[in-house]
Amino acid sequence: MIKPVWPPVFLSLLGLALSPPLARSSEVKITAEFRIDPTGGANQSFVNTTPLSGFCLTWPDRCPAGQFSISTGITGVKTWRKDDDPAQGLLVGVSAEFRDLDVYKDAESHRLKFRLSAHSLRVDKINSGLAFADFSNSQFTYPLGGCNSGGVSRGSSEWIMNHWRLPTAKYYTCRSTYMRDQEKTVTYRPSFGYELIAPNPLLMHSGIYRGELRYTVGAGMDIDYGHNAQMSSDEVVLKFELDVQHQLKVDFPNGTAGRPVVATLEPDGGWQAWQGGRMPPRVRQDVPFRLSMSGPVSVHMLCGQKLGDRCAIASGDDAIPLDVAISVPGAVSDRTHAALTHIPLPIGAETAEPIAASNGSIQSVYSTIHIQSPGPFKPATTYEGQITVVFDAET
User: Fold this and answer.
1) Cβ distance 247 to 294 under 8 Å?
2) Helical (H) or strand (E) element with 123
3) 173-225 residue pLDDT tens
């Protein structure tokens, strides 16, 4: 019996309330999945499955293939003042360097790299109308301080919106000089793009991996909007969920679907040389099969009958032990890193042999299950037994 089991993106932080209480975390879920390309093509990587929302809906041309945005539920209220201190106007401080985080499935972990790479701000009026001319020299679109303009802005007297890009750096403080003598109190709806470097899914076992990363919000924090910015949350928690589903396919050319494969054990050269009741020192049979797997799997066997710590064949009460091994070209033991050549098959799932492809995946490789028995055999006796070899992509 065989048991087959089966680049940069954007994150937008968009809120709803005008002035919710502080000391509250905003959570956002980022999801990606891996499904093997059955053709064995080059695109063997994660696909972002996070539902699209945020500024990519406003500027889809600024979010080409592989880039996304998402809402999070964070907003803020800010009063702009004309002042020599840029923190009194439109100021955005962002920690934009790459950070490492680990995602876990049970005791297995893999590392991601993540950074905030873009900022988009929608500003809604509260006490007076808005205009790009509120800021000096088109700075609402083209900021000072090291951020790069995304080349777009949009708005009306009710709201204005921009898009700034963040080069990789430990911290950026980007600003626009507010020009009006009249103070303006406005609502912020900030958005952030991100870059995510995912691990190689071909080296991960099937299952769901989870991890999280936290960004603090407030004066002097990871995300800073200057003086008098009352933000709805003082922390943004990014929750990552990576779903890995590998493909496993095992084909026995001599088998029939739903029926056992019959292996007839014989001496080397056949029975012709063993006449007159003489018994050979061993009998054996190699059972060929084809294996395709897109990531690590495990293999073990179950015995119809056991003799000590081995499977057996029997004739009545007379049982004979079997030695069973497996060979898969291009595969290694995930435990010892030895080539998978005549590796003994363990009995039971708790001792299963973890195997992996040396280059990440295997496509239709001719492999072998080696079965042999040293006897001793009784003449003119038929010995029978059953072995179930289990391939499991879920471990």
Assistant:
1) yes
2) strand 108-125
3) 999 999 999 999 999 999 888 888 899 887 888 889 999 999 999 999 999 99
- Cα 318 from chain centroid (whole Å): 52
221 and 278 inside one domain = no
Show the domain range for 346.
Answer: 248-392
d(CA 88, CA 180): 12
Q: Which of 179, 212, 245 is the last residue of a domain?
A: 245
- Looking at the fold, whether 234 and 163 belong to one and the same domain comes out as yes
- Report the distance separating Cα 97 and Cα 316, nearest Å: 71
Pairing of strands 148-155, 47-48: unpaired
DSSP 304-358: SSEETTEEEEEETTEEEE-EEEEE-TTEEETTT--B-SSEEPPBSGGGPEEEEET
* Domain total in the chain: 2
How many Å separate Cα 120 from the centre of its chain? Answer: 27
User: Is pLDDT at 255 greater than 70 in this prediction?
Assistant: no
Task: Categorize the per-residue pLDDT at 15 as very low, low, confident or very high, splitting at 50, 70 and 90.
Answer: very low
Specify whether 259 is located in the same domain as 211. no
Residue 328 CA to residue 31 CA, distance in Å, equals 34
Answer whether residue 2 is part of any domain: no
pLDDT (0 to 100) of residue 256: 57
CB 249 within 8 A of CB 109: no
What is the rounded average pLDDT of the residues 133-148? 93
Cis peptide before 376 (omega within 30 of 0): yes
CB 334 within 8 A of CB 293: no
Do both 241 and 266 map to the same domain?
A: no
**Could you report the per-residue pLDDT of 31-47, keeping only the tens digit for each?**
999 876 544 554 568 88
Which neighbouring-strand residues pair with 249? 292
Mean pLDDT across 63-86: 85
Is residue 3 situated within a structural domain? no
Q: What is the pLDDT of residues 354-388, one digit of tens each?
A: 988 887 778 888 999 999 998 888 888 889 999 99
Spatial separation of the C-alpha atoms in residues 267 and 274, rounded to whole Å = 9
